[in-house]
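anyone else get weird line breaks when pasting these?? whatever heres mine. first is seq + tokens for prot A
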Amino acid sequence: MSRRLPRWVRALALHGGLALAVALPLSAQRTHVLLVIGLSGEPQFKRAFEASAQSARDAAKNRWGVSDSSLIVLTEDSVRTALSSGRSTRENIAQAFLRLSSRVQPGDVLFVMLMGHGSGEGAQSKVNLPGPDATAAEYASWLAGFGKQQVVFVNAATGSGDFVPVLTAPNRVVVTATKTSNERNESVFLQYFAGALGMDAADADKDGRLSVFEVFRFARTEVGKAYTSSNRMQTEHALVSDSLLASRVAFGKTAASADPRIAALLAERQALESEVASLRTKKASMTAAAYEAELERLLLALAEKTQAIRAAGGSK
């Protein structure tokens, strides 16, 4: 939708420090998280997958403010642990989506991340699970009920690239560790992506929030460094389905300022961001002209507010 906005509006938004578009604030939405660890096969993979899931879980709880009732972690273990909410069977994954569907509201964010070993092709691509595997087509069917939310689906398993064309849909960002199902060698993307979810270093624009694209870009860069430092040919190439939407969806809270003038301006900008989030939920009930006119007004106001914050000595 923002691609149809006049160029001068997009340019001003960029100049004002908005990362390609407005990053949606958590004050205007809630975040719900589903983390799924598939079969590890070997102890070192089990440790690595669980460490990454713990990193993502900690980020969700401590940085994003996700409530326990909106945070589900499924692992390969048949016995529940401090990390696990249950076993990562196909049936339990389906139930997790059903449970979350009863909690999400229009405009909320659903974050899903798969970890493990992948295989298959096209709609039959999968991540290995205890018992029957769920296919990419099945994940697409489970996500179909979240059309009024922003969905971030991360398949950080090997051979995950074919999930992108199967799952791509409006208001949905799909991230995969590889560009095709043929990149099946051991992948390091997961550890860098999961780690970045809670790292200030990944916050490129230093606004106190992490957009999906910031996390993706940081992880992709670190993957390249890892292969270069070990003098290996890179055998994994991460993909993101929609960099523009990935730049809008962000996690974390905007940092407060000790300067009351800047704090007031930040609050005013946050209110405008909330208006953008609310407007997005009304798009289907508005004419295209009315929607774009209101969005243009809000983006211009946001850009001007960001300029005012910088002029007052703020860094956001």
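and prot B, same format (seq, then tokens)
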Amino acid sequence: MDKKVIVALDAMGGDLAPIEIVKGAVDAVKELNVEIKLVGRQDAVNAELEKYEFPKERIQVIHAEEVIGTEEVPTTAIRRKKDSSLVVGLNLVKNGEADAFVSAGSTGALLTGALVIVGRIEGVERPALGTCLPTKTGFTFLLDSGANVDCKAKYLEQFAKMGSVYVENIFGKEKPQVALVNIGAEKEKGNALTKEAYELLEASEGIHFTGNIEPRNIPYGEADVIVCDGFVGNTILKLLEGLSKTLFEIIREEITTGAYKVAAAMLKTPFRNIKKRFDSDEIGGAPFIGLKSLVVKAHGSSNARAIKNAIRQCVLFTEADIVEKIKDKL
């Protein structure tokens, strides 16, 4: 595309802001077809930008004096802190001055603000937070991963459709396989929500529904899109994060002691490759799908590489015209 995608970036959100956020923005404009609007305290952001050489016309600083903390009540913070980096950034998207918004700040405030300020696509009951989970064969796209704790079966059907559009267009998976998270593979298993959702998904046009999937089978890559309510999705996500971190720590302890040190040196490259496949920084963030424009939630501890990849996700999303494709799908 000749026209550059414009991404608004919350320079003050996250544990490592603004240092890593600004560096990620600089790296992004050097590699991607993008212009960035860094939103935050102008003096702090400019001080970081002075450390780097980059095409100056590709980064604009938008001043926002306030910052929303993770401990603040989301609805109250959005209402009271109109001059926060998060609210100003979302308004840039709402007003058409940016194509997408990325923040590593408060998840609750971001999701609340995105719904109130950016708004849902017409026909979407509930936007969903999507997360790419690493699997043996590549990845699976899980949604909802935390935006909607309580769901209706209709929501899960829409999650399946939106997830299919995303995976097909962003990751090039033709007719992605969709599965419903459940406690058993049989159709009759589960609670009232999953049973009703199964019936809807099975009858739904435009998706390739393959039935139920048990959580233990998710890492095998048996489905490209996995749908569930936000409570279950967030539980799966956090369990996998903790489990993978624990396993790597145990492996490191075992192979770096005594007689295994030589073997550890020989296996350094394979272990590095495995770690990379489980590294969330490679994806960059979780897209909030179902809004009129893309909003991406980056991890609170995101470094520059994660921020750059979150921006890359915005470029791919915008260039693929995902919003219009979701409208068509629904």
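btw re prot B: The chain has a mean pLDDT of 90. The chain has two domains: 1-124+290-330, 126-283.
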